[in-house]
Input
Amino acid sequence: MKKILVLVVIGFMFSCGNDSTNFTLKGNVKGLKKGMVYLQRVQDSALVTIDSLDVKGNPEFELHTELESPEVLYLKLYKHDNEEHIIPFFADKGTTEINSNLKNFEYDFKIKGSKQQEKLEEYQLMMSRFNNQNLDLIKENFDAQKANDTSRINESVDKYNNHIKRKYLYTINFAINNKDNEIAPYLALTEVYDANIKFLDSINNSLTQEVKASKYGKDLQAFIKKRKAQ
Output
């Protein structure tokens, strides 16, 4: 009998150990009374659900998972109207908070969490400025073509190409300047993956050992190796 009791206790302790998590997503969607919230990650090029909650009346929620290293996760809201709304964020071990509202879920959100998320927002702010300039250059090219002005068309094309180069160089420098943050290999893989291999090598070689050992650090090294073999 004592042996059976010991085995039961050991089994209980083992099961509790398997259920442990090291990441919590807390959130509040103002105005949400009924719907589903999902915590997702990219796996084999597809979004897969790792935790979910059926919201009934209370707009506050908690979702959990286990992280091996910092990773971009996704908070998805399904409002039973056949529409899915997704907020990406950079998660790290500990707690992240996302607050938004039902009407503008994907636009009015605020995220409080990891240092990787702070760097991602810093980068995204600069990219929004690049994108605004991009729209201006597209309009400039459109007006030149409308006026059938070859000189202006060529000038606008040159400006656009230089703009793209500046955007790439900014991303590469941003990654190198944040070599101790997982944002660096993530940007290399998602924003400048088609850049000259020497630039990817520069980012990879600048990374700290801790970042190289992270999920995106390993993915970057594997990606560079694959490109060099082509």
